[in-house]
Amino acid sequence: MDIVIVGAGEVGYHLADILSREDHRVSVVDPDPEQARRLMEALDVTVVVGDGTRAKILTQVGASKADLVVAVTADDNANMLVCTLARSLGAKRVILRMKDITRLENFRFFYKKTLGFDVALSTDELAAEEILGTVRQHRALEVESFADGRVQMRRLRIREEGELTSDTLAGLKLPSGLLIVAVARKEQFFVPGGDDLLSVDDQVYLIGRGPDLDQFELLAGAPKLGRRSVVIMGGGGVGCQIARRLDRMTGISVRLMERSARRAKEVASQFSSSIMVLVGDSTDLDLLMEERIGEANVFIATTQDDERNMVACQLARSLGVERTVAMVNKASYRQIYDLLGVDRAISPRVLCANHILRFVRSRSVSSIAVIADGRAEVLELEAHHKDGKVERKVKNLGLPRGTVLGAVVRSGDVIIPGGDTVVRNGDQVILFTLPENLAAIEEIFKPIGFQR
Fold this sequence. Notes:
Layout: E1 2-6, H1 10-21, E2 25-30, H2 33-42, E3 46-49, H3 55-61, E4 68-71, H4 76-89, E5 94-98, H5 108-115, E6 119-122, H6 123-136, E7 142-146, E8 151-157, E9 178-185, E10 188-190, E11 203-208, H7 210-219, E12 228-233, H8 237-246, E13 252-258, H9 261-270, E14 275-279, H10 285-290, E15 298-301, H11 306-318, E16 323-327, H12 334-339, E17 344-346, H13 348-360, E18 365-371, E19 376-382, E20 391-393, E21 403-410, E22 413-415, E23 422-424, E24 428-433, H14 438-445
Parallel strand pairs: 1-2, 1-4, 2-3, 4-5, 5-6, 12-13, 12-15, 13-14, 15-16, 16-17
Antiparallel strand pairs: 7-8, 8-11, 9-10, 9-11, 18-19, 19-24, 20-23, 21-22, 21-24
Helix pairs in contact: 1-13, 6-8, 6-13
């Protein structure tokens, strides 16, 4: 595909990185020569230094013949103008990224028709939804659903020595309805074999049925769920969205901490009396102890200051909070959050890029989850075998190294496959794979209209 990305910030860079590795023809526009130089040195993409809101620049970069134009600058107004120009020039599909998508409220269809975009994504909304997913149902650090919820991918941390660390993977008695597809250990990320051992603090990626994954969570030392207490640091857009939506859920108490007295008063006026708004700095240890923050189940840091988010999460964990979640403003900081022991570090900009990637493949892939900072993906697609065959055993598929067939769904039934499991034409298959294997997967399953 010919793809034009306007904006070389965190979203644009992450998107260009993944798409260029999948052999798309990617062009990036940005007015900052330093940003342009960074892309040219690191990625195999075409870079044009210029203003993407000018028709001349968009024409120069090939927007008129592009299969997709993505407007992901930091300026909402500029992104809206890029969409209008790109569609007028002839771009087939256009994606609009906005921070404040409330501007489109009640007039979404009008704006869509007028500006010419196919999809509008809000970084704040995506971040709020992702963070809510860590609180809503599961003890897992990350949850993705496939096949209408019949199959899930979960990321779990091994919290303590026990049954899971006592033997090799081949020797463990695991629930039958799941597969361990990857392990993240410090800076390592690998697909484990039967001879590998799990260790405390490993982050394990699993694909399987919900009830079986629940059993694994208990083996991993995940705490039992009861009434939960959530503390939110920051009364900005993301923090307020999370508080408002948690307030609608049963069994969850919510406290929001905001260091600006004026902002705290504004926020309190928007909420019901069930949400407690506290004025104070979440990095003030005395305040955290006075408010007994350590008794909370989840501490969520949502400010625009990464350093303050890190410090607050560290303090909350030292006081006894079960889980810490932080919004990451600089994507490069995500690994630092992991090293500091923050359970979930969520980058709104990377989330936005990942949702755009889903849209790129939407014609052929039912669902896609980009995980581990883009180092792997989980795909759901319909199997169609080559050479006119109607079925093949898993062991005869020729899956490339770094690809695991996690589940097969047939007539609503979920099959956790082994080597002798038969995959038939029309089956929905859920695959864990490294990005460089996408061409091989296309060759194996021949998904209709597969877009790379």
